[in-house]
């Protein structure tokens, strides 16, 4: 039939080809998801549409190939052509994305039409390549017979594909996108596809293929009887696997820091577990006479494995005595992160990996079409994965990670019972006349362990603990805190986990995903007021404002005292934040949510700016720290160009740049990228006890001098008294005090910024640079370097009175700092 005895030695070579396929596929997946998020956004809805389309294409491809492609064609040739097609379409997607994005922006709608349009964009870009990706395993499967040994090899091919995916994930996350860009990564993946395709075509010329009699396998024996429970079981297994991955990625990113490297490590470990499990399951499927029993107990063990991971994430890993500040090398930290990921999630991932070859063995029958066998099982597994990936996002937002994990344990128990109950159930006692259905000794022996295991699994589900508030608040730094504050609120939304805490001193903190995002600390209050008031006061008459990120509402609330402002639009990606958090900081944000001028848009800021036609006088951007995965898209040259396009004539934009949890290259990249769009931008410093802390970049559509006297007169006006009071609260109660935070401007910093990496949409270098510096606290040395280039710009600060001179003295009297003064 298909693979003759003489060609079986070549099966390991086919395994190598599948490793290459997996490597290319994961590189594409990472690149495509980043590219499409730039167009359709990165909110939970957008990500759901993206993942659903990606996995849906693979599901359809696995089902379609055995039905559309005749079994007479050589499987290796079909596989090679599919790989070649993936590489070609991958390049088309890379270069065609700008045109698709332009069409999307031109026709964008809101509500349900907007979601459908996002789905259409994703389908146009992702369905062609993912259909071919999903078809590769069924295509190659026709080379292998559906004997126990052949089914075992199908499992090995699946595992090899996953092994390649692990390598592709690490290669893309730690090298290709860190050192190069998306175009380089895509071309590398396409080159792998080309090499695999040429190898497949060459093998097809030398290896014989005996096609089945007739046009297809349709006349051959069908699948094993009673197969539907197996398909439901493998679908439930896929649902639990992807659902758990979403839940555990949320929790692990809290503990390890939500960098691109953390996500790459989590995904790599998860995929490695699938590959290891698939290999073990293939060996088991080859020798097992009862694969359905093995599949059922595998699901029961998964209930315990999910409980294990839940316990590790809530009760153990957060309290490992690991202080990330002790090492300045991120590569040492990555080793610890890898160990923690493996300790927590590898057992469950291995069991999910073993489920696939066991399911294949459970439904296989001799002489059936192996393409249809693999396609159907793969499609069921992928369909379940789609449900799990999408459903878990909404489960987290509605019932939290604790109950979401309980649901996953329950689904695993259901899958196990679906397999095992018919085997351990009632058996006909044919040898006893007049007796109906009785529970035989053998059935009783099977039923008792099953009942005990089910009871134990239900107890384990009930024991799943809620994630500790300290993890939500302090994340990877939790072991460095000897005592916890009083938590006023803890919640888990679809996009982020949040908390509000209060210290004994009365200071309140707002935490997002394991880090403090806003607080009533003096230095944080000063920054938040600066982000709003500096652009509002340097604009002659601001009427409309866009605030990127609600946070504690303090930056948005800084515009409330400005009587002339008529509209304040706040863009917030996490719907939970404004309503849950705003009230705890109502005194500091001037009850912004209660002001009729404030309108909250629940979308990620980039997508809103990309799609809105509204223009603003002021846009202030206070995003989450750039080392957090996805935040770098709010620091790209293209993003700043979008911001500039949405400013009215004379408009002003302010951008937050942190100096802490960062390094020199990161800050230089942020500043240099902003200056690419606003070359005359000015830099304003928020110091902490005289030391560098963070910066505010200020860009204007038209350069103009700043009249110091006029600014003071404006603060003295009756309609600005509330504004002046707001600034006095943070020690900036006069024009001189506010403008004395001046720390330099673009042209003066040119020597310092020479060679800085420009962060672009297709080369998100910033998130890779920032991810290496999150455990560093070098804010003051970086600030000193910048101040070495600061000069008092007499042509910028003008006026007819004494205030410009007072401002000059205030700036020059600040300590002379920087390497040139040492």
Describe the fold and architecture:
The protein contains 26 helices and 16 strands. The chain is of the alpha/beta class. The protein starts with 10 loop residues before the first helix and ends in a 9-residue tail after the last helix. Helix 1 packs antiparallel against helix 6 and helix 18 runs parallel beside helix 19. It has three domains: 210 residues, Growth Hormone, Chain: A (Up-down Bundle), CATH 1.20.1250; 246 residues, Up-down Bundle (Growth Hormone, Chain: A); 303 residues, Rossmann fold.
What keywords describe this structure?
disordered N terminus; Growth Hormone, Chain: A; 822 residues; Rossmann fold; 16 strands; alpha/beta; disordered C terminus; 26 helices; 8-stranded mixed beta sheet
